[in-house]
Amino acid sequence: MTNEKEIILAVTRFNPESDLKPHILEYSFPFEKVTSLLHLLKKINEKDGLVFRYSCDDFSGFCGLCKVMVNGKPALACKTLIDKPGRLEIEPLRNCKVLRDLAVEIPNQG
Questions:
Q1: Into which CATH architecture does domain 6-104 fall?
Q2: Rounded (5°) CA angle 109-67-22
Q3: Among 7, 67, 77, 106, which has the minimal tally of Cβ within 10 Å of its Cβ?
């Protein structure tokens, strides 16, 4: 059950070196103000070593590296604003090889 004043991220975790299959871990944050999903993923990385891709720190959305699935839909983590408490399901992009956690193999565009 979600507290009225918290954000829950249900994040798919997978380490091919130690996990047989992906699993979900939940992370909770107090809802204080509007924040980006990228900001919260960085906090999980600092605390729990979450692996994901991103390039910009200015939240421009230009590179597209931070794309993940949010509640079943593709979204840029830097542009996904969390403006209310609740629960979000965060998964790696579908139809891509998962390298670890939310990081997927990027197809060669050359």
A1: Roll (3.10)
A2: 105
A3: 106
